[in-house]
Amino acid sequence: MKKDVIIACDFSSKEELYAFLKLFPDKKPFLKIGMELYYAEGPEIVKKAKELGHRVFLDLKFHDIPTTVKKSMAVLSSLGVDMVNVHAAGTVPMMEAAREGLGDKSLLIAVTQLTSTTEEVMRRDLLIERPMEETVLHYASRAKAAGLDGVVCSPLEAAAVHETCGESFLTVTPGIRFADGDVGDQARVMTPLKAGKAGSDFIVVGRPITKAPDPAEAYERCVNDFCK
Ligand code: C5P
After folding, report:
1. With a 6 A CB cut-off, is 153 part of the ligand 1 pocket?
2. Residue 214: which domain range?
């Protein structure tokens, strides 16, 4: 699959999204619609983004009992999104149920550990004593066993995920920052250039593009650095 940059459209209204998209008059970037925009505007915003010609990663991170996830994924499948996700912590039966409900037309990926989480936080709040990489690789293997297409992980773990789960198993990596940029609430970060060299298939970039003085220029810089 061709490497690409996905813009995290963490906006709270469709007006903000449309104003942002006007900055890309001759481009159709791959968009991530997450909880904030989806809960503000509902499924219509996804349909609209698709009508405008964008590919859409719907980032709702399902984590519930298998039946609920299967039925909710079946509802989402009618939206024609390109990519959706669940938490791998929901375990294999939940991930299998998600796949069954969604069908095969959209990519289904699993969040391993949030890129805002550190080993210290895993130990303290989740009682996970294992190193980050081992935990991410274990979750990735379970996602693969459940028939998913890939995982969300930090670019720091992308190469190891490919080694363990194969080159065609996708690594979708948030936690991207320009070398001189603000880290904010992210903990496991990398530049677009390094993420490209580390084997990420898709980078998810939010604030370094949406909050840049010139978002279109920042997007181009990401694409050039990541895809070269
Ligand atoms: O602004 P920033 O580039 O940090 O945005 C990253 C985006 O990726 C956010 O929308 C966040 O919800 C999402 N994300 C993440 N870590 C994950 C999964 C998703 O940061 N493991």
Report:
1. no
2. 4-226
